[in-house]
Amino acid sequence: MPDLAFELALHARGLRRIAGVDEAGRGPLAGPVAAAAVILPRGFSCPGLDDSKKISPAKRDRLFALLTGNPAIAWAVAMADCEEIDRLNILRASHLAMRRAVESLDPHPDHCLIDGLRVRDFPFPHDAIVKGDGLSLSIAAASIIAKVTRDRLMGEIDREFPEFGFARHQGYGTKGHLEALRIHGPCRHHRRSFQPVAQLTLLFDRP
User: Fold this and answer.
1) Could you tell me the pTM of the whole model?
2) CA–CA gap between residue 99 and residue 46 (Å, rounded)
3) 79, 95 in Cβ contact below 8 A?
4) Predicted confidence (pLDDT) per residue in 111-148, tens digit
């Protein structure tokens, strides 16, 4: 289970505001990529808080409410949309969303703990932690907020384009989603740089 060991080590160096940063939505064929930045108070405890991928949707929703409703927690969430993903590539778009999330924190953090590999040219000092959402409580909290925020947005997109079933699969390439793509062609929320969307874009003329 994640804990505060990384955060405490930074506190020991005199750094006060430590932001955990994580993203959600790199792999889907549609929708934005979301990123969250979270600063937990010292001594924070939240039983059951873990990597969002290991937690059921109902438990994620409960944790999201606890985290975002706690006035002692500073948090922000940001997106990079499908047009930015297609223009920049998914890695650079993910980093853009992360930067936007951290920049939205006021005041800015002294240091960031980022899930994954180091982010080139990131405008804040940071440590990269591979599989950090299962190691750092701050990153785990960010993973919950990013995932729930994005899933809820995909629910809104589902109401706009119900034929794709976005609320069920959040844009991932499930069998049902791929079949809907073959029937209807891509909508404006699909990532046209991703296969098989790119190929189907050539066959359909849809805004």
Assistant:
1) 0.95
2) 26
3) no
4) 999 999 999 999 999 999 999 999 999 999 999 999 99
